[in-house]
Amino acid sequence: AQTVTQSQPEMSVQEAETVTLSCTYDTSESDYYLFWYKQPPSRQMILVIRQEAYKQQNATENRFSVNFQKAAKSFSLKISDSQLGDAAMYFCAYRRGETSGSRLTFGEGTQLTVNP
Amino acid sequence: DTEVTQTPKHLVMGMTNKKSLKCEQHMGHRAMYWYKQKAKKPPELMFVYSYEKLSINESVPSRFSPECPNSSLLNLHLHALQPEDSALYLCASSPKPGRLANYGYTFGSGTRLTVV
Fold first, then answer.
1. What number is the average pLDDT over the span B20-49?
2. DSSP state, residue A70
3. Residues of chain B whose C-beta is under 8 A from some C-beta in A?
4. Handedness of CA B35, A27, A48, A6 (dihedral sign)
5. 3-state SS of B89-104?
6. pLDDT of residue B97 exceeding 80
7. At B101, is the pLDDT very low, low, confident or very high (cuts 50, 70, 90)?
8. Which residues contact B115 (CB under 8 A, 6 or more apart)?
9. Coil, strand, or helix at residue B24?
10. What is the CA radius of gyration of chain B?
11. What are phi and psi of B101, to 5 degrees?
């Protein structure tokens, strides 16, 4: 079974600084996708960034980027120029590829606080 | 339309009541999901519908009964719930396998359920 581990229950960062959230996963599959979701107090799950396992290039979305190390099964999220609106619970998630209805497996989450 | 709409947003019900949660999407997604989320925890998968057929039931108690009347609509029927069933119930959808499959899930904003 696939597992996702986030070893940092809580993190904090100063506004405008950079923070990195860690995520490791375990799978025997070769085709899969990795995601970072953000869940603010409103409880809406918002997709932040995604990475296809077959792509070596790290995904970036504006201030958000990932460091995808496939051999090490590591998928960390870097938030640059942190803003107060980035404060939320962040979940790392894994999904098998190319199967309709494949489950999304979440890590335990990292609560990010942004200090003004 | 790029949203998953869940109704109601809040629900308080007694242990003898029967109620239903509704989820709707018009993105042409062919897989739909119900997740249960407790505070400060990751979402837990309950049910998966793929092409309107139930494909995964994570050993959910029979007091929760899912229904998928068509490809755009997903219901969760509730009956004789317990106080420990109080949680945020999230609906999500994902595209069929193919070019858009790596876009992950789209989540609704959830129904906050309180059982009294």
1. 94
2. T
3. 30-31, 33, 37, 40-43, 45, 48-51, 55-56, 88, 90, 92, 94, 96-98, 101-107, 109-110, 112
4. positive
5. EEEEEECCCCCCHHHC
6. no
7. low
8. B12, B13, B14, B15, B81, B82, B83, B84, B85, B86
9. strand
10. 14
11. -60, -30
Distance between A36 CA and the closest CA of chain B, angstroms: 10
Intervals of chain A under pLDDT 70: 98-101
| C-alpha dihedral sign at B35, B40, B42, B46 | negative
Q: Using the beta-carbon criterion (under 8 Å), do A104 and B97 form an inter-chain contact?
A: no
From the CA of B31, how many Å to the nearest CA of chain A?
5
Contact A100 B56 (CB under 8 A): no
Considering CB atoms only, which of A44, A50, A100 is closest to B103?
A50
Checking DSSP bridges between strand A110-115 and strand A10-14, what pairing results, if any?
A: parallel
Tell whether the model's pLDDT for residue B50 goes beyond 70.
yes
Alpha-carbon span A109 to B42, nearest angstrom? 7
Tokens at A103, concatenated = 């489950």
Q: How many residues are there in chain A?
A: 116
Amino acid at A2: Q
Q: What is the pLDDT of residue A31?
A: 86
| Amino acid present at B6 | Q
The Cα–Cα gap between A22 and A31 comes to 21
